[in-house]
Design a protein that fits this description.
single chain, alpha/beta, Rossmann fold, 6 helices, about 45% helix
């Protein structure tokens, strides 16, 4: 948790399982309720204007809004870790079901490369 609070860029990834983040990601996020308490009850945590967040999610299907239940759950984690919504970037890659789908998808590769370049300021 300390590392999450101290970092400049927080990157978190999850596949879409049953329309939300996977169970392991959800379990991790649930444990961060302690940060929620520090932020909203104890008021000992505040957002950092410069801290950036990147959420990466993959989904097998391509229907509209396939990430609509995933993004708000992930946003909870970024918010309690001190990332403002304006500093969030979402890499939402749909249509990735088979092992080879990512390497075959020019769009997916481009999106990830662009995010990496943005991150290092290229
Ligand atoms: C248990 C399970 C549930 C899934 N549920 C969804 C879903 O609700 N919507 C969807 O688009 N894809 C769903 N998928 C497909 C995955 O999101 C997709 O294959 C993803 O790329 C898997 O990433 P992983 O290899 O890291 O598990 C599901 C896959 C699994 C194994």
């Amino acid at each position: 948790m300390d590392k999450m609070l101290e970092c400049d860029v927080l990157v978190f990834a999850s596949p879409v399982y049953a329309l939300s983040v996977c169970a392991q990601a959800k379990m991790f996020i649930d444990r961060c309720q302690a940060l929620w308490a520090r932020k909203f009850l104890l008021k000992t945590l505040s957002a950092d204007d410069n801290k950036r967040g990147i959420f990466i999610a993959t989904a097998g299907q391509t229907f509209p809004d396939v990430f609509e239940h995933t993004v708000p759950v992930a946003r909870f984690l970024f918010n309690v870790a001190g990332v403002k919504n304006k500093n969030m970037q979402y890499i939402l890659l749909d249509g990735l079901d088979k092992k080879t789908d990512f390497s075959k998808s020019e769009r997916a590769k481009e999106e990830v490369l662009k995010a990496a370049r943005d991150l290092i300021g290229e």
